[in-house]
Recover the amino acids of this structure.
């Protein structure tokens, strides 16, 4: 693993204090517990409580630090222990009951290093023998951490820890030594492109707003992240909120804005809280507010909570939402950079884009541009989830192959199942099949495969997932989230969902002309998708058919099985399955009959059972409970 | 003055001279305090912002967050994000619906449970995820959700 550390020191703190804050020296034992949303979901709050109780009961002088998620969500809750003079050790899956045995040995001076997942290498500290270092761990080794470099390491509620690692250096440098035009130029030279979806060059966008004449301009951070399957924005804000604040401040300076908004999902209460604290601290220390560090630059950052509308990720819809209206997009031009919030020039960037900015300004455009591919520079954070061993956050340089991300870093598909596809870019993206996993991931290559970078959610699917069902899932999502303003999106996506539902329906439940309509729909599916793509008002509608088109392109055989044979090869589309019981294998244990919610399974105890097909709703409960493999589907 | 109109007053007093861009934050704060948006609250907010109630309903019904009925003692949010979907959250949702005998957006008649489907909770590493009163449960199955709901019910009855 490469962590790109800043070359500049933390001047305002003094070398000794900075080293202390970077935990290069600790005077008493320190315990770190990952308490991001994912950690808490895995039980970190109970782990934290157990650790606190442990220290209290034994009157041990040690510090507990709550950190964000380090990225390996699959192994949460995580507890790190650092003893004076020694490297910090990381323990995975530390439940409540594991706390005492681990801490007994940590405070005995002999931590169970054989159980440690890895240790954090640090200059001047003695490593533990036999424990791999973090950059040797298979999950972290192939990564390059730039956006995530502090996540899981620092205490997000302490500004000084961020400063000790080079934080706010870039902002100070920019406001004292560079003109806004120079900042835009530097960012454009770096090749940074928007990490939210479209991939528009960030520097260029800033220049539009800088060049627009207006008495007032606005900078907005889009932290709405409505994309199901993506959670990197949440993790960055929870783990390293000051990075976002700094990036946002630099962006505001570059375009000449004195007011900035962070539009963040209300579903992320912890991230909102951390951000609120960070903004307050930055203000207190003079990194925000009036006349920042005597440079004459003023900036106020306001938090606006989203209210749960996916379409608000679209720029013009987001602006309407901040103005207190329905989040409906409007045609562009005029682009927000010319006429945006309250009619003033406005720039909207997403969290990950802004989190890259401090690095570019501190280390220079070349350092950033040297990473990645010709058209896509820098790194990309992926939210890896679904049927993959190491679910979590992965940051790799642009151009890394998907195979590497899924199989090397992600550890491949669990339970001995075969990989089928990876869904990238959420409802605007597409599914990529196994033969194309070796392509380099960048904005352009993904488009040629019918997918897109989107926000970077990677959802892995195995042989048990039905691609028609996945397409249906996204269509259902889009259809519910469409704002309803333009007809192609409102009516078109609804029709597409109907067609997909039609091909996953069994003859049993078909009425009147539905069979005929089903076939008519199938014939028109692709054309409908093309029309929506070309005529929808905003990006949400224009990309809405992508999941269907990409699954049609790569998994046509699955569609055909549904259409012509009324069969779901993956066994997901419940209406198309008939459940049967093999009389030879059935022992009459009655487990299935007891679990059947509709009492469709009959039979006397100790003699073979059978399923009444007309009653069966295809829930599959019987299949999961049968211990003798007697239930099967066809 | 009852408690809900008192807390409404409190919220509105915090936004003196507010304009339209304060509408969504006000709605959020009122809902946070009262659990839902009552008809009286909407009228009162309209008076404060000089907006017709129809405009306020127009905004409030557009966003998924706003509710016009009280929540149950336990608010069950079933995540239907992509990762949760591929790992079987539909079966979990079906199990919840069967058990509580309500549809998403409804509250059980005894006022104990309300059910909501959310697009993504952002904890995809733990899929499928269910959140009950803000507490996350990861790796939920159709089986285990029954036990979780039963333990909520037991707690209510002091068992």
């Amino acid at each position: 693993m490469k962590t790109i550390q800043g070359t500049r020191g933390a001047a305002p703190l003094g070398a000794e204090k900075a080293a202390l804050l970077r935990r290069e020296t600790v005077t008493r034992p320190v315990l770190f517990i990952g308490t991001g949303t994912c950690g808490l979901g895995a039980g970190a709050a109970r782990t934290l409580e157990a650790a606190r109780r442990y220290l209290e009961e034994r009157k041990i002088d040690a510090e507990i630090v709550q950190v964000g998620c380090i990225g390996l969500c699959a192994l949460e809750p995580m507890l790190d222990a650092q003893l004076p003079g020694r490297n910090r050790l990381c323990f995975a899956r530390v439940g409540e009951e594991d706390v005492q045995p681990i801490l007994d040995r940590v405070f005995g001076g002999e931590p169970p290093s054989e159980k440690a997942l890895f240790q954090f290498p640090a200059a001047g500290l003695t490593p533990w023998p036999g424990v791999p270092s973090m950059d040797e761990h298979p999950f972290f080794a192939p990564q390059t951490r730039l956006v995530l470099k502090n996540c899981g390491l620092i205490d997000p509620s302490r500004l000084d820890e961020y400063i000790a690692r080079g934080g706010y250096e870039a902002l100070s440098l920019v406001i004292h030594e560079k003109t806004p035009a120079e900042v835009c130029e530097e960012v454009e030279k770096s090749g940074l492109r928007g990490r939210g979806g479209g991939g528009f060059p960030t520097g260029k966008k800033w220049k539009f707003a800088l060049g627009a004449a207006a008495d007032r301009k606005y900078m907005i951070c889009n932290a709405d992240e409505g994309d199901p399957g993506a959670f990197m924005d949440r993790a960055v804000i929870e783990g390293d909120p000051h990075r976002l604040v700094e990036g946002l401040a630099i962006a505001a300076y570059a375009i000449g804005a004195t007011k900035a908004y962070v539009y963040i999902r209300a579903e992320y209460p912890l991230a909102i809280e951390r951000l609120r604290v960070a903004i307050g601290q930055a203000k207190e220390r003079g990194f925000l507010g009036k006349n920042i560090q005597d440079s004459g630059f003023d900036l106020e950052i306001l938090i606006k909570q989203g209210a749960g509308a996916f379409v608000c990720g679209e720029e013009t819809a987001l602006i309407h939402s901040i103005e207190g209206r329905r989040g409906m997009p409007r045609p562009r031009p005029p682009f927000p950079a010319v006429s945006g919030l309250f009619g003033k020039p406005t720039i909207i960037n997403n969290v990950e884009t802004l989190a890259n900015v401090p690095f570019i300004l501190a280390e220079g455009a070349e350092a950033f541009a040297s990473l990645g591919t010709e058209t896509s520079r820098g790194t990309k954070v992926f939210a890896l989830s679904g049927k993959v061993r190491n679910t979590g956050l992965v940051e790799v340089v642009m151009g890394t192959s998907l195979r590497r991300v899924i199989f090397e870093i992600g550890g491949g598909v669990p339970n001995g199942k075969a990989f089928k596809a990876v869904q990238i870019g959420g409802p605007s993206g597409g599914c990529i099949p196994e033969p194309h996993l070796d392509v380099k991931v960048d904005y352009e290559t993904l488009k040629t495969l019918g997918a897109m970078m989107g926000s970077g959610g990677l959802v892995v699917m195995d042989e048990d997932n039905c691609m028609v069902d996945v397409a249906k899932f996204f269509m259902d999502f889009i259809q519910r989230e469409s704002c309803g303003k333009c007809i192609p999106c409102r009516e078109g996506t609804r029709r597409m969902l109907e067609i997909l539902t039609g091909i996953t329906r069994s003859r049993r439940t078909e009425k009147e002309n539905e069979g005929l309509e089903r076939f008519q729909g199938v014939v028109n599916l692709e054309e409908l998708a093309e029309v929506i793509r070309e005529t929808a008002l905003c990006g949400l509608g224009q990309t809405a058919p992508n999941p269907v088109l990409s699954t049609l392109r790569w998994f046509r055989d699955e569609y055909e099985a549904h259409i012509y044979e009324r069969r779901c090869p993956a066994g997901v589309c419940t209406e198309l399955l008939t459940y049967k019981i093999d009389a030879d294998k059935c022992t009459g244990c009655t487990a299935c009959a007891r679990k059947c919610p509709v009492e469709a399974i009959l039979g006397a105890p100790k003699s073979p059972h059978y399923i009444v097909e007309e009653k069966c709703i295809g829930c599959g409960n019987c299949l999961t409970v049968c211990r003798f493999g007697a239930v099967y589907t066809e | 003055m009852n408690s809900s109109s008192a807390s409404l007053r409190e919220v509105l007093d915090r936004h003196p001279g507010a304009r339209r861009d304060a509408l969504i934050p006000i709605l959020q704060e009122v809902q946070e305090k009262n659990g839902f948006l009552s008809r009286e609250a909407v009228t009162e907010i309209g008076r404060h912002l000089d907006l017709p109630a129809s405009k306020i309903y127009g905004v409030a019904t557009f966003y998924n967050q706003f509710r016009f009925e009280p929540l149950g003692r336990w608010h069950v949010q079933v995540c239907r994000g992509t990762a949760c979907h591929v790992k079987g959250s539909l079966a979990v949702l079906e199990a919840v619906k069967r058990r509580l005998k309500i549809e998403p957006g409804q509250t059980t008649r005894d006022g104990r449970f309300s059910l909501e489907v959310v697009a993504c909770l952002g904890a995809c590493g733990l899929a499928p995820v269910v959140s009950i009163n803000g507490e996350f449960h990861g790796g939920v199955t159709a089986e285990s959700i029954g036990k979780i709901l039963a333990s909520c019910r037991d707690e209510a009855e002091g068992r």
In short: The radius of gyration of chain A is 27 Å. The longest strand of chain A covers residues 379-386. DSSP finds 24 helices and 20 strands in chain A. Chain A touches chain B through 58 residues (CB under 8 Å).
